[in-house]
Amino acid sequence: MREALAAAQRQNEVLSTFVALSEAAATTDDLITLARHVGDVLRRNIPHLLAVYFTRQGERWVADLASDAVPPEFMALVRAGLPLDTPFLAQTVAARTPQFFDHWNPAEQGTPYAEQFQAAGAAPFFEGGRAVALLTVGLVGQAVWTAQQRQLFLAVYQALYSAQQRSVLAQERQRSLEAFMNLTELIGTETEPLQLAQRARDFLQASMPEWSVGYYEWADGWWRALLADVPDPELRASLFAGLPDTTPGYRAAVDAGRPVFFDHWNAAEQEFTHTESYGKAAFAPYFRDGAPVAMFVVGSQHRREWLPEDRAVFETVGRSLGLALERAWQAQALEDRSRRLQASEAQLQRSNRELKAANEDLEAFAYSASHDLRTPVRHVKGFVAMGRRALLDGQLEKAERALNVMEGAADQMNAMIDAMLALSHSSQRPLDHRAVHLDALVDHARANVADEGTGRDIAWQVEGLPQVMGDAATLQQVLTNLLSNAVKFTRTREQAVIEIGTQAGEEAWTVWVRDNGVGFDPAYAGKLFGPFQRLHRHSEFEGTGIGLATVRRIILRHGGRIWANSVPGEGTTFSFTLPHIRPLELDGG
C-alpha cells in the first residue's frame, strides 16, 4: 500500500509539472526562457539531474544554457561546441524523437569531462525539416532511467516542443504573407511568362533551396518544360522533351483545377522516370478559357510529407504566379490583336482603348502590390507583436482578439486577390454576341443580391426592358455588380428605391441603374471606375474596389461606355451604352 501511494504521488507530481510547464509555454515562445524553466522543473523532480540546451551554429552544437552544477571543464567544452557527428547527438537527430542512454560511456559518446554522468537523455527540435536545437540531460549516480523519470522528461519535452512549433508556425505564416507581398511586387509589371516562372523559382529556392522547380506549357497533348531546375541530367532532358498529358500528376492537377500535393512520391505509380529519389511533389495548373495551358511543379528529395506551412508557401507563390500569368497572357493577347488590326482605324481605336485600360489596371496592380495589399500585412505584423505581448502578460482574451484581427486581415487580402483575378478574367473570356433579354438578366441579378437585402424594405422599379445585343454571361456580371452596389449604398435608407430603365438611341441602348443611396462627390467621378479606387471608407461600406473596374472593362469590350451621376445624400445613377450592332472584336470572340 505504501509503495502504491508513493507511486501515485510521483504520478501526480509528474502531471502537476506538465500542467505548470504547459501554462508557462502558453505565455511565451522564447525557447531559452522555456528551456531554463524546463531545467528547473527537472531538477526539482530529479535532484541529481543536470541539463544542457544546445542550438546548432554552423557545423557544431553549441550550449546556450546549462545547469549551474555542470562541471567547469565540461561547460567549457560544450560552450565551444560539439561536432554534429557526436554519437548520442547524431543518433537523436536521426531518430527525430527523444532518446535515453543507460549505462553512459563518455568515451564511446565522444564527450570528455562527462565521467560523472551514468545515464543521459536527449530530445531534438526541428524547423523546416532541419534540426535546430537539442535538450540534453545527464543523471549523476544513476545508471538506468526509471519509467517515471522517462515519463517526466517526455512530458517537459512535449511542452517545450509544442511551444517551439507554435513559434515556428507563427514565423512561417508571417513569412508567407511577406513572401506573397515581395513576390507580387517583384513580378507585378513583368509580362513574359518564362521570366515570371523564373522569378517565382528564384523566390522559392531562396527560402527552400532543396526544392526542384519546373514550369511547363501544354501543346498537342504534351507538357513540355520551359524551366526545369533538377540535378539529374537525364530527368532534365526528359522534361524538356515533354511528358504526355496522361501522366498522373499532371492529369490529377488538371482534373482538380487547383494545386495537388503528393506525399511519399512513387515514381512507378506516377509514370515519372528518373524521379525515384524524390519524396514529395506538388502540381499547380493554370488555365485559359477553361483549357489547361501551363503547370508549375515542385519536388523535394529531402522530405516525404508536406508540412502545412510548406503547402501554404507553395499555394501562395502559385497563386501570385497565376495572377501574374493572367496579366502576361492578357498583355500578350492585346499586343497580338493590335498588330493584326492596324489596317482598321475603328479597330485600332478600340485596341488603344483596351490597351490603355490594361495599362491603367497594370499600374493599379503594381500600386496595390506596394500599398493596398500591404495594409492587411501591416495589420498582421502589428497584431502579431500585440498578441505576443498579450501572451507574455497572460492576457489570453486580448491575444485572441489579436488573432481575430489577423484572421480578418488575411481574409481581406484573399478577397482582394480573388477580385483581381475576376478583373483579369473579364478581359480574357471570348464574348458570345447574340440577342439577350435584359429583363431576364435583371431578374437573375436581383436573385443574386437577394441575401444582401434580407430584412430591408427595397422598392424595385423596373420598366419594360428590351432585347439587346451582347454577351449574356458578362452582361450578367455588369448588372449584378450595379444592383449589388445599389443595395449596399442604400442600406442607411428606411426604404431603398432602386430603378432599372433603358432609353433607345440611334446607335445604342442606354441602360441605367438609379438609387436613393448615400451618393458621392461628383468631383471624384473620374476615379470611380479605376481598380482599387474607393470613395467611401471600408468601415462604412465593405468592398475591394474592383467591381466597377470589372464593369467598365466589360462595357468597353461591348463597344459601349459607362458613366455615373450623383448628388451626395440623394443617390447615384450608373448609365452605360450597348451598341445595336455587334462591335468589332479584337480577338474575334
TrEMBL record:
<dbReference type="InterPro" id="IPR003661">
    <property type="entry name" value="HisK_dim/P_dom"/>
</dbReference>
<dbReference type="GO" id="GO:0007234">
    <property type="term" value="P:osmosensory signaling via phosphorelay pathway"/>
</dbReference>
<dbReference type="InterPro" id="IPR029016">
    <property type="entry name" value="GAF-like_dom_sf"/>
</dbReference>
<dbReference type="GO" id="GO:0000156">
    <property type="term" value="F:phosphorelay response regulator activity"/>
</dbReference>
<keyword id="KW-0808">Transferase</keyword>
<dbReference type="InterPro" id="IPR004358">
    <property type="entry name" value="Sig_transdc_His_kin-like_C"/>
</dbReference>
<dbReference type="InterPro" id="IPR036890">
    <property type="entry name" value="HATPase_C_sf"/>
</dbReference>
<dbReference type="GO" id="GO:0030295">
    <property type="term" value="F:protein kinase activator activity"/>
</dbReference>
<keyword id="KW-0418">Kinase</keyword>
<feature type="coiled-coil region">
    <location>
        <begin position="331"/>
        <end position="365"/>
    </location>
</feature>
<feature type="domain" description="Histidine kinase">
    <location>
        <begin position="368"/>
        <end position="582"/>
    </location>
</feature>
<dbReference type="GO" id="GO:0000155">
    <property type="term" value="F:phosphorelay sensor kinase activity"/>
</dbReference>
<dbReference type="Pfam" id="PF00512">
    <property type="entry name" value="HisKA"/>
</dbReference>
<dbReference type="Pfam" id="PF02518">
    <property type="entry name" value="HATPase_c"/>
</dbReference>
<dbReference type="InterPro" id="IPR003594">
    <property type="entry name" value="HATPase_dom"/>
</dbReference>
<dbReference type="InterPro" id="IPR036097">
    <property type="entry name" value="HisK_dim/P_sf"/>
</dbReference>
<dbReference type="InterPro" id="IPR050351">
    <property type="entry name" value="BphY/WalK/GraS-like"/>
</dbReference>
<protein>
    <recommendedName>
        <fullName>histidine kinase</fullName>
        <ecNumber>2.7.13.3</ecNumber>
    </recommendedName>
</protein>
<dbReference type="InterPro" id="IPR005467">
    <property type="entry name" value="His_kinase_dom"/>
</dbReference>
<keyword id="KW-0175">Coiled coil</keyword>
<keyword id="KW-0597">Phosphoprotein</keyword>
